Structure formats: C-alpha cells, structure tokens
Amino acid sequence: MQYRTLIAIGLLATGLAAQTMSGTYTVDNSALGGPGVFTNLQSAADALKNQGVSGAVVIDVIGTGTNYAGFRLEAVPGASPSNPVTFRGQNAPVITGSPPLGTRGVIEVTAWNPPMSGQPGYPVPGVPSVGTGPTDITFENLDVTAGIGASTAGVYIQGCARFTLRGCRIFQSDMGVYAVASNTVNIEANEFADISPTGGAGWTPFDGVISFDSGAFGSIVQRNRIHDCNTRGIMALDVSPLVGSGANLPITDFRVINNFFWNFTGLAPYFATCAPPFCRGGAVIVGNANNDSLIANNSIWMTQHPTATIGLEATAIQLFTTVALNEVINNIVKHDGSGACIRLEDMSVPVPPTLDSNVYDVGPNAVIGAVGTTTHATLLTWQAYLAGLGSAQEMLSVAGTAGFVGPSDLHVVYTSLPCMIPGTAHPLVTRDIDGELRGPFQAPCRGADEVVPTIAVTQSGPGANFTVNIGSLITGAEYFTAFSFDLCPNGPGTGPYLGLCSNNIVALLQTLIVPSAASLPMHFIAAGPSQTFGPYGSPGPFSVEAITFDGSSGTIRAVSAGYRLNIL
Asked: Which of 13, 98, 108, 257 could form a disulfide linkage to 72, CB 3.0–4.6 angstroms apart?
C-alpha cells in the first residue's frame, strides 16, 4: 500500500511539473515562493522553458527595493503570436549583473547555451540562425543595469523573432541592446542612459546603444530617449555573410522613427585600427537596407566630445553599402561636433530615393553632407552635389535653428522652424514620441515631437470645484474642444472620430457645426499659450474623454491626444 501511494505521489508530481503555463504569475524576491510565485527571475525563465505555455503568460516582476539578478530565457515551447510571454515590471524592479551561465547581457534571450564567444555575429558552428531562438517575448517596465565598468549589454537577444522591449530603462552598461540573428524586433519607448563601451572582449565591431548584427529584418526602433552616452546610437548592419543571413542580404523593412538623442557623441569604438563600417561613429548607422526601410522624424543633438579628433567625430546619420535605404525624411539634426549631419560611406552608396524635409542646425565645425571624405558645408552645396548625381533631393530640407526646448528636452517650440515649415506626412509615422497624433489633417512637424494642444483638470479633492486647462496653444488660433462620455476601451484617444468613441459623436458634430453654442464653452481664440476654464462645480465622480484641435480658417490642423479627464 505504501509503495502504491509513493508511486501515485510520484505520478502526481510528474504531472504537475509537466503542466503548461497560462495566465499571470509573479516574481517577488521578498516572498517565500509558492504556486504561481517565483522568488527570482531565472526560476521563472526555467519554468517557461521546461513547462511551455498553452495560453498567454504574464510574469509580473515586483519591485521590492532589492535588485534582481540577471537571467537567461531560452526558447519557450508553445509561445506564438496568440500565446505570447510578457515579463512586466511593477513598482520599478531593477535587474543587474550577468545571469549565472552567461556574460553577454544582464538579460539574455537566446537559444544557444552558452552565448557565442568571440566577436558576436561571426560564423560559429552551432550558432542558431534567424528565428530559431525564443519568439513572441515582451519585456515591459524593467530597469536594467550591468553596472559601471561592466563589459556586458543590458539586453542580449539571439536568434529571436517577434521580440519587444517596451518602457524599460537601460543604463550604465557596455551596450544597451545587442540583437544578433534576430528579426521583427520592436525596441519602443525605452530610455537609454550612460551607455559607454569598456573594451570588453568580443564587442568591438558593434559597440553602440542599440545594435543589430545579421538581422533586423522587419524590426523597428521607435520613441526611445537616448542620452548621456559616449558611444554610437542605433546601428543595423548586414554587410557580410554572417549568422543566418547569407551573403550581403539587404535589411528590409527596418525603421528608425521618433527617437530623441541628446548629450550624445556618437563616437566610434575605443579602438583605432578597424575597417569600415565597424569603426564609423554616428547616431543612426544603417547598411544594406532597402524596401520599406525608413529613418524618419528623429531629433538628434550631437555634442562635441572634448577628446575627439575630427576623424573620430561622429556623423548623425551614416549610410553604407550598395543598396539604397528607401527614405530619410523629417529628421532634425543639431550638430555641435565636427562631423557631418548625413554621410554616405563612399560613391558606391546610392542616394536614398527619398531624402528630404530634414532640418540641419550645424555648429562651426560641422558640415551638412559628406560622401566619403568629401564634405559639403552648406545645404546649397549639398543640394547641388546631389543634383549633379541626377538626384533632386533635400529640396524641402532647411538649414536653421532646431527649435528644441532645451539641451535635455528635444520637444520643439511650436513657433520654431520645424513646425512653422512642416515636414512630409508618412503613413508609417502617425504619432510622435509621446504618442500624440500626427495629422491627419495637417502636415507634421519635423523631428520626433508633434506640438499639439494639451488638456488637464485641476481639482483639490473629491467634490471640490475643478478647472480645465488647455495648453500648447498658438496665440490667435481658433480652438475647439469636444467631449465623449463613451470611454474608448483601448485607452483615451483610440476612438475612430479624431480619437473619440461613438456614443457622443453628436457632441463632436455640434462642436464643428455650431461652435458658438452656449453649451460648448471651450471654443475660443487663444490669447496666449494656455487658457483656463472654470472653476466648475463638481457633479462627480465621472470620467470623460476630450480632444482639442486647431480649427482656424475652417481647417482642422493640430489635434491633441485623447485625454481621459477624471472628475472626483
């Protein structure tokens, strides 16, 4: 009897161990652990690898004030677009140090154990090709640091597909994100700070804040803030037969959109003896890209590095190899260093089919364009050079003041050049770095910031009177505000009617047709940069969604984001 009981217990334990994961779990290093609760990240990653998933899985990582150790996540059986795996930070958890079996990243997402040695990206027997590693993985709202002086990336991904890094903070690391042999990667709305190479073994060819090696097809880098970094910025190269890519395959559908760079040198790696493209510096460095590849609406402030020579000083946008990247548009480059705002590696690099609507603000030692070692100091000489190649490009670009709010705030003043002389609308750039709507009725501002009205409620407490403040206004412009009590299920501003949902579409139409109606008091001519309405008595609690738009001269222009106003 006792023997049968032990067998039954063993079978039960085996069944529980093999049970696939689905639903929400927790990682909490202050907890004792138990069903659905892990005390460290590696144990959660191991459970995913060993048990697999049968539905969507969310791992909530709880910030407790005690740092978590780094971890490695290998392929998760059952993960797919319909069964994704998300590691979601709650209360700002910090992850630091390399995982127990790895040295490449604080977080390693890889199918190869251990990660490859030597210079990442070069052929090594047994290294996985593109897409054979973990898929359908998302990391959200995590703080990741390797520590000052560590030769380790914040996040290292290898052989991955459909990987997302969103809302994270990566700081004090040798590199921010290193992606090798990985496609369909989304690096979105993160902050990267104090990223500087240390000279650690194996990193030299691809040192940078965000680096793609032998992959990047279908990937997007968008809405990130990159600052206080003494290294290169966003780098995607596929210029030799590296891992899983074949010989010189073009990078297709690679997009760099709506990113801020400030207090940023873009310097090339620490070593001086290397062959292009690996020794080139820059904020955005792309090689062999075509199809829908796009560098658009980035705001870049290159700073002078006190120890850099002209040869080391970085280009803001650097293009390589013999395939033309489709579009370089609507970027703002303020260059206080001694490099070029945009540079083609040599005469063999085609001019992008669309290169236009950029803003160039150059310091005394910088130039606007360069091809190889030949520089073009002014926009006129750069335009003339391009015209001589039979390429009528940069004709809508302008040279002048960038219009940034400040050295660490690359939002633009509405009355500055990037907005007063708007850029070119693009169907893949529908919102700005803050998620605010671009268009759909006006040409967009250049750079990563779209200046649109803002709406906020001020109320001291439940039942108290409240005021409504509408800001970021143009003096003399005519504004309309519309409200909806139908809260959009996907968040404010996601409805089909200028961001509003359907129940109160009548109110929106009244706003447009009968703007002077007494029931619509927030139709006004702006007397200054902001306008306050109220105080109003509170009938709350209730919530409404609101938008404000510039309707001057009967044309809808700047449309605010959708705001959810909560009246207490």
From this structure: 108
Let me know whether 467 and 395 are in one domain: no
Domain containing residue 131: CATH number: 2.160.20
Do residue 348 and residue 492 come from a single domain?
no
Chain centroid to CA 342: how far?
21
At residue 143, the pLDDT reads: 98
Q: 120 and 222: one domain?
A: yes
- Return the half-sphere exposure (C-beta side, CA atoms, 13 A cut-off) of residue 409: 5
Residue 545: CATH number of its domain: 2.60.40
pTM: 0.83
Calpha distance 194→185 (Å, rounded): 23
Of 44-48, 416-420, 422-426, give the range with the top mean pLDDT.
Answer: 44-48
CA distance 202 to 550: 53
How far apart, in whole angstroms, are the C-alpha atoms of residue 374 and residue 439?
A: 38
Are 379 and 501 in a shared domain?
no
Q: List the strands of the sheet with 466-471, edge to edge.
A: 454-459, 466-471, 530-536
**Residue finishing a domain among 388, 404, 420:** 404
pLDDT score of 115 more than 50: no
- Neighbour count for residue 289 (Cβ, 10 Å): 29
Q: Please report whether residue 154 resides in a domain.
A: yes
Q: Is the pLDDT of residue 205 over 70?
A: no
Q: Which of 531, 535, 483 is nearest to 504 (CA)?
A: 483
Q: What is the number of domains present in the chain?
A: 2
Mean pLDDT of 338-360: 88
Residue 17 lies in a domain: no
In one-letter notation, the amino acid at residue 361 is D
Residue-number span of the structural domain to which 544 is assigned: 454-567
The verdict on residue 290 lying in a domain is yes
For residue 201, give both structure tokens.
């073994």
Q: Kindly state whether residues 232 and 155 are assigned to the same domain.
A: yes
- pLDDT tens for 157-168 read 988 999 999 999
- Map 143-192 to HEC letters: EEECCCCCCCEEEEEECCEEEEEECCEEEEECEEEEEECCEEEEEECCEE
The predicted-structure confidence for 306-326, as pLDDT tens digits, reads as follows 443 333 446 788 887 656 668
Which run of H or of E encompasses 458?
strand 454-459
Residue 237 and residue 338 share a domain: yes
- Return d(Cα 534, Cα 531) in angstroms, integer: 10
pLDDT band at 248; cut points 50, 70, 90: very low
Q: Are 154 and 107 in contact (CB under 8 A)?
A: yes
User: Does 287 score more than 80 pLDDT?
Assistant: no
Mean pLDDT of the chain: 81
DSSP string, 221-278: EES-EEEEESS--EEEE--SS-TTT-SS--EES-EEES-EEEEE--PPPS-S---TTT
